[in-house]
Amino acid sequence: MIKIIIPAGVLVFVLLGAPDLWACGASAGSSGVAVCNLSEERENVSENWHVGGGYSFSETKIVFSQGGVDHKLAQSRHVALASLEWRSTPRWNFQFGAGALVAGRFETAGGPLDFNPGFVGMLGSSALVVKNDGAVPFVLGTAQLSGVTSSTKNDVGYHALDLRVGAAVGWTFFRTLSPYAVARAFGGPVFWELNGAKVIGTDLYKYQLGAGVSYMIANRLDLFVEGIGLGERGISAGLGLSL
Fold first, then answer.
1. How far, in Å, CA of 226 to CA of 176, rounded?
2. pLDDT at 47
3. What is the largest CA-CA distance in the chain?
4. What contacts 221, CB < 8 A, 6 or more positions away?
């Protein structure tokens, strides 16, 4: 299932100075990325908007039930996403994103079946639940609704919706570098056609466990990378700019 997730996921590396961070994350569920960076003294920060862009690769299995038989099809996808984030308060962020399903495929009994390019979109929000204070890690809660519309090379429409919630837990070092662990749970329908009949499927894995890191550069630019090794696997990377 193709989907875009917001608050929650990243791995970044670079070295420069920036203001104190409570947390910074990018969520890249199975496809897509949304970046956030939270100032330790948000009240004193004038940049309430953040724009970003990123790429993600993910793979999972989709289960389609047909005639009492479960068909488990491996799926991979490549997604490019642009995002806009509004920092409404020191603790709350809201994200909006749109992009493209660039490539992907189903592994079927008859061989690989590629996706045509498609559209992806997402809405999300994140909240700083606990502030990083010494040994106490930051805890960032996230929620995201995302969707994709595309088709496979056999001219069959493919449409999917996804709702997921998660949490990122980590620490900020040198006021710029924020490694973290992330966990997410999700679910949603996948609409497709199998063996000439319309089917509704869902992910075999409805969770993600992984880690990432983000880095803030020169007060405005942030970079990130996130890897998911358990559940719905994937990797995402990107950058963002505070306005």
1. 16
2. 61
3. 60
4. 239, 240, 241, 242
**Cα–Cα distance measured from residue 118 to residue 124, given in angstroms and rounded to the nearest whole number:** 20
Paired tokens of 100: 């493209």
CA angle 61, 226, 18 (to 5 degrees): 160
- Residue 215: the pLDDT is 87
Q: What is the pLDDT of residues 156-212, one digit of tens each?
A: 999 999 999 999 999 988 888 889 999 999 989 999 998 888 999 999 999 999 999
Nearest Cα residue to 55 out of 235, 240, 223, 242? 235
Kindly tell me the burial class for residue 229, based on how many C-beta atoms sit within 10 Å of its own C-beta (0-12, 13-18, 19 or more).
exposed
Cβ-proximal residues to 93 (8 Å cutoff; 6+ apart), any chain: 7, 36, 38, 85, 86, 87, 125, 126, 127
Q: Which residue has the tokens 């466990």?
A: 209
Helix (H, G, I), strand (E, B) or coil at 25: strand
Give the Cα separation of 10 and 178 in Å (integer): 9
Separation CA 195–CA 203 (nearest Å): 19
Q: Taking the model in full, what pTM does it have?
A: 0.78
Beta strands in the chain (DSSP E): 21-26, 35-39, 49-66, 69-87, 92-108, 111-114, 118-130, 138-151, 157-170, 177-187, 190-194, 197-203, 207-217, 221-231, 233-242
91: left (phi over 0), alpha (psi -120 to 50) or beta: alpha
